[in-house]
Design a protein that fits this description.
This protein starts with a strand and ends with a helix. It has 153 residues and is of the alpha+beta class.
Length: 153
């Protein structure tokens, strides 16, 4: 059976007939642990997921330390982590400092994940239109450093 749509405008009801495959897909998407989503909530989540990226990290409390970017009211630093396993048994490695624009954060909160040092990870749902700044440390040889310094003058 193919998908068909009919609308009864006298009572404002849309009648939708789905194929068996579509119904199974909808059941898997909508039903989780005997709780149900309404259509508006599911659609909102689908739209948010298409226009955002979820970034994991540990929020950094700014103090009087020296950093590459001068702190301001619009940027939030986190210790950016990469989580590739969906398991609390495999801690997520954190490798760099990521600065997020406050205005670009659509949603944030705690997760069940921890990094290798046991810190609780947070998620930050960030708009795809936003830019992030990454501070990454890289080890280089002294001779390479000397060449960089010479060319900087």
């Amino acid at each position: 059976m193919t998908t068909a749509v009919g609308v009864d405008q006298s009572v404002g009801i849309a009648i939708v007939v789905f194929s068996e495959f579509s119904l199974n897909y909808i059941k898997r998407c909508v039903m989780t642990e005997s709780s149900y989503f309404n259509y508006e909530e599911l659609k909102k989540r689908q739209i948010e997921d298409s226009i955002s990226t979820q970034i994991y990290g540990v929020p950094i409390v700014l103090s009087d330390f020296v950093c590459a970017i001068q702190p301001n009211q619009n940027l939030i630093p986190i210790w950016g982590c990469v989580c590739v396993q969906d398991s609390t048994d495999n801690p997520c490695p954190c490798r760099w400092i990521v600065w997020l624009h406050k205005d670009s954060i659509m949603q944030s909160g705690k997760t069940k994940f921890k990094n290798s040092e046991g810190h609780e990870l947070h998620f930050f749902k960030v708009s795809n239109r936003s830019d992030v700044v990454i501070e990454k440390l890289e080890s280089i040889g002294v001779r390479e450093y000397a060449k960089i310094i010479e060319t900087a003058d």
